[in-house]
Amino acid sequence: MAKIGIIICARYRNCGGGKCLRAIRERAGGFARYSREETVELVGYSSCGGCPGGNIEYVPEEMKKNGAEVIHLATGLVVGYPPCPRLGAFKELIEKKHGLKVAVGTHPIPLRYFTAHEGLSFWKRGEIAELAGDLMQESRERMAAYD
Ligand code: SF4
């Protein structure tokens, strides 16, 4: 059993989470790390609170009290424009302050976003690509299924 929390970018705060929940079910994108035999329970869902992300200081603690072991930073932080400039800082804070594991990514990157972003010098190389490795390795077919 894996208990997880999801934190989304507040620019998409009205998102209903449909793709994230589908990806949990399909073990796709950031959830490919869990086997299909393992139960994945979502114990928290919130946003960063808006730039500069003040909720990151508090919300993971609430999720932890609810049993969360891993916090998934949503795919929107990676493919929003611009991508969240605080991705690395969020990961470090959650790991060090809250003592929780962090996975960057929820649902697969929709192929049309991947195609639009992959030529951008700041995106495919460097920190984002490194942090969001699970998403970058997803098959193009699966990305297309999330368009
Ligand atoms: S860009 Fe980053 S800090 Fe700003 S709202 Fe989105 S996740 Fe939060």
Per CATH, which architecture? 3-Layer(aba) Sandwich
Subunit organisation of the chains: single chain
Helix content: 25-40%
Average of the residue pLDDT scores: 94
DSSP strand tally: 4
Major β-sheet strand ordering: 2-1-3-4
Structural class, by secondary structure, is alpha/beta
Integer-rounded radius of gyration: 14 Å
Describe this structure in words.
This protein has a single domain (2-145), classed as Rossmann fold (3-Layer(aba) Sandwich). The protein is 39% helix and 16% strand. The mean pLDDT is 94. It is an alpha/beta fold. A four-stranded parallel beta sheet has the order 2-1-3-4. It has nine helices and four strands, in the order E-H-E-H-E-H-H-E-H-H-H-H-H. The structure holds iron/sulfur cluster. The site of iron/sulfur cluster has 11 residues, from loops.
Strands, helices and their partners?
Elements (H helix, E strand, L loop, with lengths): L1 E7 L9 H9 L13 E8 L11 H7 L4 E4 L2 H4 L7 H11 L3 E4 L6 H7 L3 H4 L2 H5 L1 H4 L3 H6 L2
Parallel strand pairs: 1-2, 1-3, 3-4
Bound molecules: iron/sulfur cluster (SF4).
Iron/sulfur cluster (SF4) binds next to loops.
